[in-house]
Structure formats: C-alpha cells, structure tokens
UniProtKB/TrEMBL annotation, chain A:
The keyword Cell membrane applies. SUPFAM superfamilies: MetI-like. Residues 18-202 form the ABC transmembrane type-1 domain. It comes from Streptomyces filamentosus (Streptomyces roseosporus). This is Ectoine/hydroxyectoine ABC transporter permease subunit EhuD. Belongs to the binding-protein-dependent transport system permease family. One of its GO terms (molecular function) is transmembrane transporter activity.
UniProtKB/TrEMBL annotation, chain B:
Belongs to the binding-protein-dependent transport system permease family. This is Ectoine/hydroxyectoine ABC transporter permease subunit EhuC. The gene is ehuC. It comes from the Bacteria. The lineage of its organism: Bacteria, Bacillati, Actinomycetota, Actinomycetes, Kitasatosporales. Keywords: Amino-acid transport, Cell membrane, Membrane, Transmembrane, Transmembrane helix, Transport. The chain crosses the membrane at residues 28-49, 70-88, 191-212. It comes from Streptomyces filamentosus.
C-alpha cells in the first residue's frame, strides 16, 4: 500500500532526476531543430547524389527503435559521456521527424513568394533566409511544439545507457527502498504535470496561428 | 578484438537463429495485440469524445490527457513494478500489451475523433433525411468515409508502436531485442548484433507500412465504388 514516508523521501530523488530530464529534452530538441532543418534542406538541394542517401538514412533512422539506436551508439561511439551521447541520438532521431515537418512547412509557402524573390532577383540564400523559412517555420511551430512534448516523454529511454534522468532515479529508489509504487507514481505525476500544460499551450498557439 | 568478435559472431548467429526467430514472433505478437487493444481504446474514446453530454466529453478528455501525458515508459514500469505492490501481478507480456494499447489508444482516439469530425455534416444530414438511425448512420455513412482519413495517421502510430516494443525487453519479455542482446553478450559481436537488430526492425516497419498503404488503397477504392453506385 501507499507509504507516505517513502513518498516523501522519493520526491526529492525524482525531482533531481527531473532536472536531468529537462536538460536532455532541451539539448536534444535543440539538436533536432537544427539537424532536422539541415536534413530538410539537403533533401531539397536538387542534387540526387545528396538527396538519395540522406533520404534513405533518414527513413532508416525514423523507422527503427530509438532504444536500439541508443544501444548501438553506446558500443559504436565509445568515449562520450552518456548524457551527450543520449542527447545526440535522441536529437538525431527526432531530426528525422522534424525534417518532414519542415518539408511540409516549406511546401506550404505559396509559389508567388518564390516568384516574387526571382522577380526581385534576390540571391538564393536571402530567398531562403528572409522569405521562405520565416513563413515555413511559423506555420509549423505547433507541430514542433508537439514533437518537443513527445521527446520529453521519451527521455526515459536514455536510462538504458545509464543517464540518471527521472525514471532511472525513480527506478533506483524503488529497488533500494522497495518503494516502486511511490517512486513511479510520483514520476508519472511529474510527467503529467509538466506535459499537460505544455500541450495546452501548443494547442493555444495552434489556434492563434490558424487566424 | 573487433575481428575476433565478428568471426565468432557469424557461427553464433547461425546457432541463435531459432531463438531470434522466436524473439521476432514475440515482438510481432506484442505489436499485434498492442495495436488491437489500441484500436479498441481509440474507437471507444474517440467516439465518446463526440458525445452530446459534457460530462462524458470531459471524462474522455481527462482520460486521453492522462494516458498520453504520463509517458509510455513510466506506464509500463508502473504496471510491472508498482502494480504488484497493490496486490495485482500481471504477466510481463500482459503489462506490455496493456501499456502499449492504452498509450497508443489515447493517441488513436484523437485520430478517430478528428476523422469523424472531418466527414461533411451534409452526409449525416442526408442520412437523417433518409430516416437512418444513429447506429446505422455511423456504420454505413460516417465510418466508411472517416476510415479512409484514419488510415495514414494509424500507419504512423502502428510503426511508432512497433518501435516502442523493445521496451518490453526491459521487463523480461523475451522479444527480438532481448534475444539479440543475449547473442551479443554471448559473442561480443556487439556492433554486428545491433546492426542486425536495426535491420530486422526496419524490415518489419517497411512491411507494416506497405500493408497499411494497401489497406488505404482498398478503402479508397471501396469508397469510390460506393459513391458511384449511390
């Protein structure tokens, strides 16, 4: 049954893990946002010898379990600390999702915008940076937000390569004190308390951008 | 070291092939059962979300947010480690199927709700005008059209669900990841083992995707035929 003392002891342990969870989410998502854009632009480069292998690799990464990718990276890339490695793997995995999101956003920029850039003979770089990307990114902000929430909830996977994020800490506390009920219930509550308001915020953003 | 690992890996792989096959079957079983439960949950919650009663809609909202917001990983561990402390012990596979089904069912509920809402209101109005009851309307008019819209997001969810099944190996289910992990620790052919594992998952994901695409084509064709004769 529920043990109040165990719960009181578990709370600071779980919360200290939550700090690592947040850090992993922020860093991982930063990697995903940048790498995802890079993938999207490479796929649109118009050079088949770039687009084909990049697209194939992205499809492979997207279609295989992130947990197995973490294990594989753990043995293939020695010498990195677990958190850095985890952030890179999780970030690159999500980059393959985000590249699709960016692509949809870029495709949704009206053709007239491109034509206007040509008419003004804006250089290609400037066309992308000043005209296309700002509009594309604005359109896909809610989708990016949803993926951030989703990544947040997948950070426990990092515990398989010994990152001491929240679920790892809850698990360790549970096994030493035999208090899994308290520690995992608290971890679940923290996830819910953090992700619900964030998804409400994303939905609000969605409604606002729709106008 | 890597060389000896790789040379030991191939014969060991040959010997381990039956075990890996069994692991693959367990992974497929978990995917199929999890997806079946998720489909059930998705339709139950997704249709209830369109109820006229505010209480029902509110209850569905809370359930969906709860199931999506608490992280699949934590749900599975809670069912496996915490639930026994309340006096209920489930088989590891049952924990896995339950966690996958409830979590993905909640995501699916949004898909069902959205797809049903996207069917033009005139379709329902026409069915009402023809004197169809609510059950018949849903079955013969709304769902066949909503179904086509549901299939592409369901395809994504199904592949996501498959990609979540390695989690089950963490709660002692002898799935594909579990078996290949055993092979890896027996041979030291580590990189090769994980590469093989990724390739098998990729193959299964591609096959599932192709199957869902075929379903979508068929559903569209059927809808075309129905529309033509009506």
């Amino acid at each position: 049954m529920w043990d109040m003392d165990a719960a009181r002891d578990a709370l600071p342990v779980v919360l200290s893990g939550f700090g690592v969870t947040l850090l992993a989410t922020v860093l991982g998502f930063a990697v995903a946002v940048v790498a995802g854009l890079a993938v999207a632009l490479l796929l649109r480069s118009g050079r088949r010898w770039i687009a084909l292998p990049v697209g194939g690799l992205a499809a492979f990464v997207r279609s295989t379990p992130v947990m197995v990718q973490l294990f594989a990276a753990w043995v293939l890339v020695p010498g990195l600390d677990p958190l850095t490695l985890g952030v890179l793997v999780l970030g690159l995995h999500y980059a393959t999702y985000l590249s699709e999101v960016y692509r949809a956003g870029i495709d949704a920029v009206p053709k007239g915008q491109w034509e206007a850039c040509t008419a003004l003979s804006l250089p290609r770089r400037r066309t992308w940076r000043a005209v296309v990307l700002p509009q594309a990114v604005r359109k896909v902000l809610p989708a990016l937000g949803n993926y951030a929430v989703s990544m947040f909830k997948e950070t426990p996977f990092l515990s398989v390569i010994t990152v001491n994020e929240m679920v790892h800490e809850a698990s360790a506390f549970g096994s030493t004190r035999f208090a899994y009920l308290e520690s995992f219930t608290l971890a679940a509550a923290v996830f819910l308390l953090a992700s619900w308001p964030t998804s409400l915020l994303v939905r609000r953003l969605e409604a606002r951008l729709a106008h | 070291m890597t060389d000896s690992g790789t040379t030991a890996f191939l014969p060991a792989l040959g010997r381990a092939l039956p075990a890996i096959g069994e692991g693959l079957l367990v992974t497929l079983e978990a995917t199929a059962l999890g997806a079946a439960l998720a489909l059930l949950v998705a339709f139950a919650l997704g249709l209830a979300a369109r109820s006229r009663s505010r209480t029902v809609r509110g209850a569905v909202r809370v359930t969906v947010e709860f199931l999506r917001g608490t992280s699949l990983y934590v749900q599975l561990f809670w069912l496996f480690f915490a639930l026994p402390m309340l006096g209920f012990r489930l088989e590891p596979m049952a924990c896995g199927v339950l966690a996958l089904g409830l979590n993905y069912g909640a995501y699916g509920a949004e898909v069902v709700r959205g797809a049903v809402a996207a069917v033009p209101a005139a379709q329902t109005e026409a069915a009402v005008a023809l004197g169809m009851g609510p059950g018949l309307r849903l079955r013969r008019i709304v769902l066949p059209q909503a179904y086509v819209l549901m299939l592409p997001p369901f395809k994504n969810l199904l592949v996501q669900l498959l990609k979540s099944t390695p989690l089950l190996s963490l709660v002692t289910v002898a799935d594909l990841t579990f078996r290949i992990d055993q092979l890896r620790s027996a041979t030291g052919g580590t990189a090769a083992a994980y590469l093989l594992l990724l390739l098998v998952y990729f193959g299964v994901a591609v096959l599932l995707g192709a199957a869902m695409n075929a379903l979508e084509r068929r559903a569209k064709a059927r809808l075309g035929v129905t529309g033509g004769s009506a």
